[in-house]
């Protein structure tokens, strides 16, 4: 038995099945999620919504501390010599004298005593120095990265 093309049943459809074989109704007016079959695989959808900050009674966090990198030298009044001691990175809100005392304690100079006090200078040029108030902070003294400090033990009145 021969079948001709004219005898074969014909069907026509006016819809396109894009659901991957699933019989789901697709509403084109609703927002579609990322798994939607109508969206391209690499298509990125960015939805923006007005977000109001939550009302809080908390203060904002403090800013991160400022740090400075400085160099320290020691001037020996007896020998009249200048010796490099160290370089350090320190928070700019630290007191200069506290930082210098800790650095000098690490070196343990022979002329140091537990009651030694320090006079501290800032090197402003190759041959220029300026005494600073060592009880102030690095920030208060406008000490910045690369500052060179010179510390000497303050002579006692009998010296």
What does this molecule look like?
- There is one protein chain.
- Helix content is 8%, strand content 23%.
- With 159 residues, the chain is mainly beta.
- It has a 5-stranded mixed β-sheet with strand order 2-1-5-3-4, with helices on one face.
- β3 (118-123) and β4 form a beta hairpin.
Which key features would you list for this structure?
single chain; 159 residues; mainly beta; Ubiquitin-like (UB roll); 5-stranded mixed β-sheet; 5 strands; 8% helix; elongated
Task: Annotate the secondary structure layout.
Blueprint: E1 67-76, E2 81-91, H1 96-107, E3 118-123, E4 129-131, E5 147-153
Parallel strand pairs: 1-5
Antiparallel strand pairs: 1-2, 3-4, 3-5
Please summarize what this structure is:
With 159 residues, the protein is mainly beta. 8% of the residues lie in helices and 23% in strands. It has one helix at residues 96-107, and strands spanning 67-76, 81-91, 118-123, 129-131, 147-153.
Order of SSEs, N→C?
EEHEEE
CATH architecture descriptor name of the domain at 67-153: Roll
Tally of DSSP helical segments: 1
CATH names the topology of the domain at 67-153 as: Ubiquitin-like (UB roll)
The geometry reads as: elongated
| Radius of gyration computed on alpha carbons | 39 Å
Strand order of the largest sheet: 2-1-5-3-4
Percentage of residues assigned to helices: under 10%
Number of strands: 5
Rounded average pLDDT: 76
- Tell me the distance between the termini: 132 Å
CATH superfamily of the domain at 67-153: Phosphatidylinositol 3-kinase Catalytic Subunit, Chain A, domain 1
Structural class: mainly beta
What is the CATH level 1 assignment of the domain at 67-153? Alpha Beta
**Biggest beta sheet summary:** 5 strands, mixed
The share of residues in extended strands comes to 15-25%
């Amino acid at each position: 038995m021969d079948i001709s093309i004219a005898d074969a049943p014909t069907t026509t459809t006016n819809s396109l099945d894009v659901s991957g074989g699933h019989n789901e109704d697709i509403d084109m007016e609703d927002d579609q999620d990322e798994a939607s079959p109508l969206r391209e695989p690499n298509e990125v959808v960015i939805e923006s919504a007005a977000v109001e900050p939550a009302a809080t009674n908390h203060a904002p966090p403090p800013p991160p501390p400022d740090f400075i990198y400085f160099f320290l030298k020691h001037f020996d009044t007896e020998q009249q010599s200048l010796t490099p001691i160290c370089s350090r990175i320190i928070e700019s809100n630290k007191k200069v004298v506290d930082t210098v005392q800790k650095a000098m304690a690490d070196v343990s100079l022979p002329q140091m005593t537990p009651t030694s006090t320090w006079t501290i200078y800032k090197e402003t040029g190759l041959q220029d120095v300026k005494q600073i108030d060592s009880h102030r902070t690095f920030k208060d003294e406008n000490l910045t990265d690369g500052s060179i400090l010179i510390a000497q033990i303050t002579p006692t009145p009998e010296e």
